[in-house]
Each structure stands twice: as C-alpha cells, then as structure tokens.
Write a structure and sequence with these properties.
It holds the Pfam family Orn_Arg_deC_N. It catalyses: meso-2,6-diaminopimelate + H(+) = L-lysine + CO2. The modification N6-(pyridoxal phosphate)lysine is found at residue 67. The active site is at 361 (proton donor). Residues 43-293 form the Orn/DAP/Arg decarboxylase 2 N-terminal domain. It is built from 13 helices and 24 strands. It has helices spanning 19-26, 35-55, 72-80, 90-98, 115-124, 134-147, 185-193, 215-234, 259-277, 290-293, 330-334, 424-429, 432-435; strands at 4-6, 12-14, 17-18, 30-34, 60-65, 84-87, 106-108, 128-131, 151-158, 161-164, 167-170, 180-181, 198-204, 208-209, 239-241, 283-286, 297-311, 314-321, 341-342, 351-357, 366-374, 382-386, 407-411, 414-419. The two termini are 44 Å apart. Strands 4, 17, 18, 19, 20, 21, 22, 23 and 24 form a 9-stranded mixed sheet that branches. An 8-stranded parallel beta barrel has the order 5-6-7-8-9-13-15-16, surrounded by 6 helices. A 3-stranded antiparallel sheet has the order 1-2-3. The chain is α/β, with parallel strands linked by helices and 451 residues long. The protein has 2 domains: 4-29 and 295-429, Lyase, Ornithine Decarboxylase, Chain A, domain 1 (Beta Barrel), CATH 2.40.37; 35-288, TIM Barrel (Alpha-Beta Barrel). The relative contact order is 0.16. Bound molecules: ligand LLP. Ligand LLP binds next to helix 10 and helix 11.
Length: 451
C-alpha cells in the first residue's frame, strides 16, 4: 500500500529519490509526498466519476477534501487535474484562495462556521456554502444580503446511514453533530428557497470515512432522493452531493474496491432512484480527501532505541522512532493500522515482531502496532511508514513541544519542501511568557497584530 518501491540495490525509493538521501538532506521525521502519485490519483478519481456520470447523462464535480492535507502545492496539483476544493474553516479557505483556487470552484463546509467565516466565504465568492444547521440558514442569507450577493448553498442532511470500513449502519436518526435530520430536509430546503439572497443547489450527505464499496453510498442516496424528489416538485433541484470517504489500503489486508467500480455503483443507484421518483438525474458532487493524498505520502523516521519485551509466547521488540503521535495521531486516536519497512538498508535477518513506538510521554504513542521487521533493526536505521499522506500532517500537534516535521514533495527524483517544518526556536518564540514576560496583561496577540 505505498508509493515507495525498492531499487535494484534494495534501497527504498520514493518518486526517484532514495529514502536515505531524503532523510540525510531534510532530517527525520519527514513527511514525503509523491507528487505524480497524488496527481494520478486525483485524475483517476475524477475520470471514474466523470465516466460514471456521463453514462447516466449527467455531470459531476469532484472536490478535493482539504482537511486530509491542505497546502499551496496540493491545491495547485488538484486544481491542475480538474478538481474543485472543499474547505471547512476560514484557515482552509485562506490557503485555497492564496494558492489561486477559483473561488467559484470552492465548497465551504463546517458545523460551526463563525459569522466572520461565512462573510469571508460569501465575500470571496465561493461556489457553494454547505448549510449544516437550521441556524445557519439565516446566517448565510443575511451575510449574502449584506454583501449584495446571491449565495449558492447546499443543505447537509444526516441520512441515518453511517459507514466506516467494510460495513454501514442504517438507522432512522444518527446521534452526531453534522447536518440536519433527513425528515426536516424538505422543510429546511423550502426555507432556504424563501430567501432571495440564497440559491438552493441541493442536498449534501457524507456518510463516513475509509469506506471500501458503494453499498452505504447507494443506501444513503436512495434515502436522500425521496426528499430531493419532493423538493423537485416545487422547483428543479440542480444537484446532489454525496460527500467523500473512499477507503485506501493502509496495510496489505485492506482491499478497497477500485474507484471505478465504486463510482459506477453509486451513480447507478442514483439513476435508479431518480427513475423511481420520476425526477431527472441531477448534477452530482463528491468530496474525496484520503483516497487522493493518503497513499501518496510516506513518513520517514530514524530508530532511536530497540527494547525486547517478553510477551506470551515470545518477545515483542519496541522500536522507538524520533516522531510519533505528534506527526501521526491516527494510531493513538483511532487504533489505525499502518505498516513499516526498513528503508535504509537490506537485511537478511529473520523477521521479528515489532511495535513501532513514538518518543512521546504517553503509552498510547504507537505508530505501527504490529509489524514484522528484520530482527537486526537497530538504532540509526531508517524506517518508512507508508500511506501517511492523509490526516497525519493535518492532525499533527506540538505535544511535548515537538516541532512539526516538514513536508517534502518528490517528483522525478527532485525533492522540494512544500511545507516548512517547525523549529524549537519557533515554538519558543510563541511563548509570550518567555519573549515578553513583563508585558502588561492586556497585550494580546490577535490577527493583524504581529508580535
Ligand atoms: N466531506 C466531508 C463533509 C467530510 O466530513 C469529510 C471527512 C470528507 C468529505 C473527506 O473524507 P475522506 O474522503 O478523506 O475520507 N481524521 C479522520 C478522518 C476524518 C474525516 C472527516 N471528514 C481519520 O484520520 O481517519
């Protein structure tokens, strides 16, 4: 499950650069992204949905879900490949705009957008704001009216379908914070339409993440289409957005269906539902994040200590690396599974059961829970953890005052920093108790007020 391959000498290579030389040049921990792989995945997913949509006589917009990993470079890659961009905070909006994304091709999500964020979105001319609650209808309508604009909006609906890896659950109501319940979709859609400063695009639904097939999406589409059809009786509803969540292989046991199959399955379900409800097939929209950037990333770490710990029936080697939950929180947060490989050399040593641990002061600070690595893995060795392109940098923290690592993109053997790493000095500089211990208590660092 990786963008990293081995060359003839057995060295691990990412997009034409060997891992050891990347580590030597940029240090570890290091996030490495294979640009060609990210672009190819974006293009393939777009093509899969374009083809599926065309087969039922409609079109589709594929948004890259920036929460997975957002930076200026990636915005340019995905927009080059014909994708739109989905943001969910003012910060993500700022990155997308600064990177030159066409505002009309931005979608703006969030269950608690501030009035200021809504105003920024409206003012920038974002193509769609996703209304997540009843309260937001008036907030967005008022912001648009104040700006003298008509803002296109979607209504996020909770379909009662929740999917997460392999299986989906379908209930009448889901107990979670996003969206409005399906049984209010018609009422609230109608209310949106009553505002002259809003243009109702249609319903939106996101059923979950790391999903391997189309069944949950199909179930959700079927449920949404009843409300979509009812709203269509009053006036045409141009669009239906079914969110993101397409899964990737983190380890060799993960086998997501090919995206072409998933796209075809979802679009077929939509077309059948539309026929049943006697409405035209709307334009479609999707918001994949992980499936575009996840497999294109790999994290490099240097081994610091190795500690054999007796366990029932054998021994587990705790291999501790120079990063951990501050650069990849997913194992600690979700029990996510990753694999690891020895990247700096080839070893003929017999495999040993290893747990790759981080350097943080927390026993849950694990990067890879269980892996077999050559039994002679030793301090100074370089490890590569594949499939870390999504939700690793974006969930990174400074726990234990560890600076965030840089992100390096490699393309045809050429590496360049796309996000600078932090430094210890940089972290200290933010500490007002160190830099200005005698400042009067009213001094506060706010936006537009540089230190
Ligand atoms: N659209 C909406 C409205 C979403 O909430 C999300 C993800 C996506 C699209 C993109 O989903 P993707 O295709 O990337 O699965 N931190 C978690 C994942 C959180 C996903 C949140 N929403 C993780 O690391 O697994």
């Amino acid at each position: 499950p990786s963008t990293a391959t081995r060359d003839d000498a057995g060295r691990l290579v990412v997009a034409g650069r060997d891992a050891a030389s990347l580590a030597a040049e940029f240090g570890t921990p290091l996030y490495v992204v294979d640009e060609a792989e990210a672009r190819a995945r974006a293009a393939r997913i777009k093509r899969a949905f374009d083809d599926a949509a065309a087969s039922v006589g409609t079109t589709v917009t594929v948004y890259y879900a920036g929460k997975a990993f957002l930076s200026g470079a990636i915005v340019r890659w995905v927009t080059d490949e014909g994708l739109a961009v989905d943001v969910c905070t003012g910060g993500e909006l700022a990155v997308a705009l600064a990177a030159g994304a066409d505002p009309a091709r931005l979608g703006f999500h969030g269950n608690n957008k501030s009035i200021a964020e809504i105003e920024r979105g409206v003012g920038a001319g974002v193509g769609a704001i996703v209304i997540d609650s009843e309260i937001e209808i008036e907030r967005v309508a008022d912001a648009a009216a104040r700006a003298g604009r008509v803002q296109a909006v979607r209504l996020r609906v909770n379909s009662g379908v929740h999917a997460s890896t392999h299986e989906f659950l379908a209930t009448a109501h889901e107990d979670q914070k996003f969206g409005v319940s399906l049984d209010r979709a018609v009422e609230l859609g109608t209310r949106i339409r009553s505002h002259p400063s809003l243009h109702f695009l249609g319903l939106h639904c996101h059923i979950g993440s790391q999903i391997f097939d189309s069944a949950g999406f199909a179930e959700s589409a079927e449920r949404l289409l009843a409300a979509h059809a009812e709203l269509s009786r009053l006036a045409p509803v141009p669009e239906l957005n079914l969110g993101g969540g397409f899964g990737i292989a983190y380890t060799s046991v993960d086998e997501p269906a090919p995206i072409e199959e998933i796209a075809a399955g979802i679009v077929r379900a939509v077309a059948i539902g539309c026929r049943e409800h006697d409405v035209p097939v709307p334009k479609l929209a999707f918001e994949p994040g992980r499936s575009i950037i996840g497999p294109a990333g790999v994290t490099l770490y240097t081994v610091g200590t190795v500690k054999p710990v007796p366990i029932e029936g054998g021994v587990r080697h705790y291999v501790s690396v120079d990063g951990g939950m501050s650069d990849n929180a997913r194992t600690a947060l979700y029990g996510a599974e990753y694999s690891a490989r020895l990247a700096s050399r080839v070893s003929a040593a017999a495999p040993a059961l290893v747990r790759v641990a981080g350097k943080h002061c927390e026993s849950g600070d694990i990067v890879v829970d269980a892996e077999y690595l050559p039994g002679d893995v030793a301090p100074g060795d370089l490890l590569a953890v594949p499939a870390t392109g999504a939700y690793c940098w974006s969930l990174a923290s400074n726990y234990n005052h560890v600076p965030r690592p840089p992100v390096v993109a490699v393309r045809e053997g050429v590496a360049r920093v796309i996000v600078h790493g932090e430094t210890e000095a940089g972290l200290l500089a933010r500490d007002a108790g160190l830099t200005a211990p005698d400042a009067p208590p009213t001094v506060r660092l706010v936006e537009g007020n540089p230190a």
